[in-house]
Amino acid sequence: MKEQYEFQELEIKWQKRWEDEKIFKVSETPGKKEFYCLEMLPYPSGRIHMGHVRNYSIGDAMARFKMMQGYNVLHPMGWDALGMPAENAAIKHKTHPKSWTLNNIDHMRKQIKRLGFGYDWSREVTTCLPEYYRWNQWFFLKLLERGLAYRGRRAVNWCKSCQTVLANEQVEDGGCWRCGRSVTKREFNQWFLKITHYAEELLQELDHLQSWPERVITMQQNWIGRSEGSSVSFQVEGLDKKIDIFTTRIDTIFGSTFLVMAAEHPDLKVISRGLPAEQRVQEFVTQQLRKSLVDRFSEEVEKVGVFTGRYAINPFNGERIPIWVANFVLMEYGTGAVMSVPAHDQRDFDFAKKYGMEIRQVIRPESEDQIDIPMKRAFIEDGILINSGSFSGLRSDEARGKMTRYAKENGFGNFEVSYRLKDWGISRQRYWGTPIPVIYCQDCGIVPVPENELPVILPDQVVIEGYGSSPLERAPGFLNVKCPKCEKAAKRETDTMDTFIDSSWYFYRYCDPLNQNAPFSRDVADYWFPIDLYIGGIEHATMHLIYCRFFAKFMRDIGLIRYGEPVQKLFTQGMVIRFGQKMSKSKGNEVTPDEMIERYGADTTRLFSLFASPPERDLEWSDQGVEGSFRFLSRVWRLLYKFEKRLKDVNIDFSGIEAGDNALKLRRKTHQTIFKVTGDIDRRMHFNTAIAAIMELVNELYLFYEREGFSMVELMAIKESLQAISLLLVPFAPHFAEEMRESLGGKGLANGQSWPVADERLLEEESVLIVIQVNGKLRGKIVAPRGSSAEYVFTRAQEDDRIRLFLAGKSIVKKIYIPDKLFNIVVR
User: Fold this and answer.
1) What is the pLDDT of residues 708-758, one digit of tens each?
2) Which residue, of 198, 411, 617, 738, is most buried by count of CB atoms within 10 Å of its CB?
3) Strand 305-313 with 619-620, pairing
4) Nearest-5° angle of CA 62, CA 63, CA 66?
């Protein structure tokens, strides 16, 4: 071997060997335990960043570890290749989104391969290719058949910058999840997927996801937002129309002194039509819909509204209450209308104070006999009903049941469960997405594209301007078709699907990527699923990770898969931080993987990303840390160079040999390291502590580095230790590990070997520290051989000068010995 650690040459050598021998290519092997290891697929932006490197290093470490443990490991890679950024980039660079995307994929694939990640590239999936997105269209048709895809008009989230609709989950702090600009509301005809059909199951199944981070579980619970309460219908005075509300506090309904509707409520125009306030209402609505969700719903924003001029009838007491439109009610929550009870809701209290409306207390504290008049703030707790007709005197919890039953019996209400989760709006007014497979016929209405005509392919010749309606509207060859039913002239749908459709089921396609007759085979999917380990960022908790669970439940119900939950264990890694901020090109704090590979090599880059921090926490970038990882590998290389020739003819056989002190100490440290590294990876995914343990073993080996003369048993112990290190390093620095194993005379690839198993007889230390007490107080410590008898420990204790002082002139009453830990001498 060469004296210097020449990482570039070494890494390319082993990557070629892996590729030639196809060691990561797998097939379904019945009877062999399987392990599906997956990182969330990247968007092909043109380059990978250190966040990618960290994510993929975690997955690759686990995949290689499980392979060595004898598992049949599926570890694939693909590309989330559709979406708005490609379209925007195409406009900016005057190129086609398809060319831009595929060129980026080629570049990123080379980067990933240069890092040596062990993917089965034969299963690569690219979502922008027709052979993939045809199945998006197939799923849409199946959802449509079952009433789970529908078209409706609704005020939806609109990003003016991106000129597209966004799902609720794609609005982050009032801004677009892609560009960050403010999101407003616009009314469109849109396609929706009825994710609410599975709302209860999506919520309940969270209790069974024992290997998901608690933070993600909580975020999904909050996003689904289940509330138990009551629905109540308020008749609109003078119109044949009712306004439905949902409330968790029907016990306060006698205190409702006004009703408030959201600016985007579909009935608002009808309610204010022809009234003096109609223009004021419309101006208010227009003003509100221009604002972002944060600007409208933030606690800091002033609550404002307009009286519509219309009244509703409270069905419990027959009172006329004014109907308002205000900025603190949104269609996203409940029904888009609320009964306002200012005495028992602080927001309503403030609004009523501002606009001079009645505040009527109908709940009093149980411990109070007098009602405070006037009220200084809303009383929001449960209590005793007052001013509530025949329900007065009831406790709140009792009243809620009785009042809801009364509403149900009289036909204006019922028990209700409400969800914050809304149906998934999937229509996007963009080109670079999956065409929605429906046709609009003047005679036949909405007609699904026949399955045998899939895929509906995106046309290459389009004019993409980046604003206004979908570019597909300006592609006559795509737009104009014959109706599949009547064969008259018709038009295709020009909206494309939300790109989260692509990522909702891609991991099933990895199982069977060449299937031309179905999205995938049921038998193949049942072999690999559920995913044993899924690695990705916390930012996907309420988007991708809800959508893919919805898709799994739908696929189960149509018989495609067995399990309704796709992921058994979810792991959310931390970000890469530099100078206190997330590493990114825009912040000027980026370090690229290419730089690291050129300067230090792939193994150092990977090793640092796993060693610098526990994987679930943020990693603070450190140039010194990278240097330290490189120095560590160089130290191991120097050991290898020193001992390579001496160990070539050494056969390890400790049977019948009594190891000397140095050899036994090294053997003990070697097997303790194997035990610790195995546990840290398998049970905790604590790669940082596993690598630290290997570093400690290397330090132990360096005690032999300066010496020249060695006994045969010491050489055997050194070779055993170096061989163990060559295997323990496979998950972290696989190229280096392969070279190390080959230098030690190993046959075959290191990644093809069995994971080392610790000899339990060598896990315990030879000597132990025993605490000596006199009358329960610490008086000294002694070192003794493990398993020493009480008599031996007592004799050694008496030999200690300090302990002997506390025994002098005393009578020994009792001796208490906890083997290998404590010896207490009771005296008087």
Assistant:
1) 889 999 999 999 999 999 999 999 999 999 999 999 999 999 999 999 999
2) 738
3) unpaired
4) 80
118: CB partners within 8 A, 6+ apart: 18, 23, 24, 60, 63, 64, 67, 75, 734, 751
How far is it, in rounded angstroms, from Cα 721 to Cα 702? 12
Res 734: pLDDT: 98
pLDDT tens for 344-353 read 999 999 999 9
Task: Specify burial of residue 523 (Cβ count, 10 A radius: 0-12, 13-18, 19+).
Answer: exposed
Give the residue among 750, 705, 704 at the shortest CA–CA distance from 724.
Answer: 750
Block residue for tokens 């060449």: 514
* Pairwise CA distance, residues 715 & 643, whole Å: 9
pLDDT of 657 reads 74
Q: Are 105 and 126 in contact (CB under 8 A)?
A: yes
- Residues linked to residue 364 through DSSP beta bridges, in sequence order: 384
Q: If 0-12 CB within 10 Å is exposed, 13-18 middle and 19+ buried, where does residue 519 land?
A: buried
**Dist. CA 96–CA 90, nearest whole Å:** 5
Q: How crowded is residue 803: how many other Cβ atoms within 10 Å of its Cβ?
A: 20
Contact 513, 492 (CB under 8 A): no
690 with 622: CB under 8 angstroms? no
The DSSP secondary-structure symbol of 395 reads B
Among the listed residues 526, 628, 621, the one whose alpha carbon sits nearest the alpha carbon of residue 575: 621
- Rounded average pLDDT over 110-121: 97
User: How far apart (Å, rounded) are the C-alpha atoms in residues 689 and 695?
Assistant: 10
SS3 assignment, position 549: helix
Identify the pLDDT of residue 21.
Answer: 96
- Tokens representing 794 are 């007592």
CA 233 – CA 97 distance, rounded (Å): 50
Question: Per residue in 616-625, pLDDT tens?
Answer: 999 999 999 9
Question: CA–CA distance from 681 to each of 66, 378, 615, 674, 720 (Å)?
Answer: 10, 54, 11, 11, 21
- Long-range pairs of 615-619 with CB within 8 A, sequence gap ≥ 24: 615/54, 615/58, 615/571, 615/573, 615/574, 615/685, 615/687, 615/688, 616/213, 616/571, 616/572, 616/573, 616/574, 616/685, 617/574, 618/574, 618/575, 618/576, 618/577, 619/54, 619/574, 619/575, 619/576, 619/577
SS (H, E, C) 147-205: CCEEEEEEEEEEECCCCEEECHHHEECCEECCCCCEEEEEEEEEEEECHHHHHHHHHHH
Closest CA to 677 of 781, 604, 763: 763
pLDDT in tens, 253-306: 999 999 999 998 989 999 999 999 999 999 999 888 777 665 666 667 789 999
Is residue 476's pLDDT more than 80? yes
Strand-pairing partners, residue 159, are 164, 183
Q: CA-to-CA distance for 430 and 162, rounded, in angstroms? A: 9
* pLDDT tens string 135-191: 999 999 999 999 999 999 877 788 877 777 776 657 777 788 778 888 887 778 899
Phi, psi dihedral angles at 516 (to 5 degrees): -100, -5
Give 197-255 pLDDT, tens digit per residue: 999 999 999 999 999 999 999 999 999 999 999 999 999 999 999 999 999 999 999 99
Torsion on CA atoms 783, 788, 794, 796, rounded to nearest 10: -40
Residue 707's pLDDT band, with cuts at 50, 70 and 90, is: confident
Closest CA to 453 of 431, 435, 475: 435
Question: If residue 304 lies in a helix (H) or strand (E), which one and from where to where?
Answer: none
Tell which residue, 592, 604, 608, 595, has the closest CA to residue 6.
604
